[in-house]
Predict the 3D structure of the following.
Amino acid sequence: MKRMMIKSNNNNHKNNASYGRLSYNNSNNTTSSSAASRDEEFEWEMRPGGMLVQKRIGTSTITSTVPNFRLRIAFGALRYEISVNSQATFGEVKKLVSAESGLEPGEQKLIFRGKERENGEYLDTCGVKDGSKVILIEDPTSIEKRFIERRKNAKIQTVHRAISDVSMEIDKYAEQVSEMEKSISSGIKVSELQITTLIEMLMRQAIKLDNIQTEGETAAQKNLQGKRVQKIVETLDAVKISNGRLKHVVVTNKWETFNPNPPATTSVAANSTTATWEIFD
């Protein structure tokens, strides 16, 4: 009887042990399945500091769950204050600062705690808090690029003015040539010296154009004015030939003349006076 009880107890112990194993396995399965579901629900990413955190998907998700805070920006003697999401990146901060400073994001360097921050670094990871101060400096390379660009623009403006001055001179000479053509077509001869002088002045403008250093758009403008000079000179050559075929026009005026000592053409009979005398005895 005692053996049977012991056996029965052993059987109960085995049953309890097997039951314990079964419930343990079920709990493990439940835990692993829930962990798998969480892994499927969230994606993970590695922060710059080496911390594995939930991946941030889209700015809208961040702004809806994470509040904004104030960030003070020092740019030389200027001070700005912007509102930014606490989990934003320094690259996003540059975009916000661009509207205040006038610097493009690529022209900015952001310094926090004595270290330049990369665009992909997150504010909260770097320890940025509400009211933190960030120093903004302009990238030296962008300063040099801006200086080169300004110098280039100034040179282009100078070239534009030089070409414009030549163009105005050509316009004046073109008007004179047009007047010459009208005179010659009307049969009025033009002075040869005037034609020669105009050709010489136009050639001087051509030399000015040659001395102007151009590129791109200004080169096209320079070539256009050069072609204008060439065309006007060819027109003057034709005018010179037509002018040489004309004879000088002599204009005479008929004047009525008066002679102060007219010849004595009056007959003596007409001028003589006759008288009849009566004789008295």
Notes: Residues 140-185 form the longest helix (46 residues). The chain has a mean pLDDT of 76.
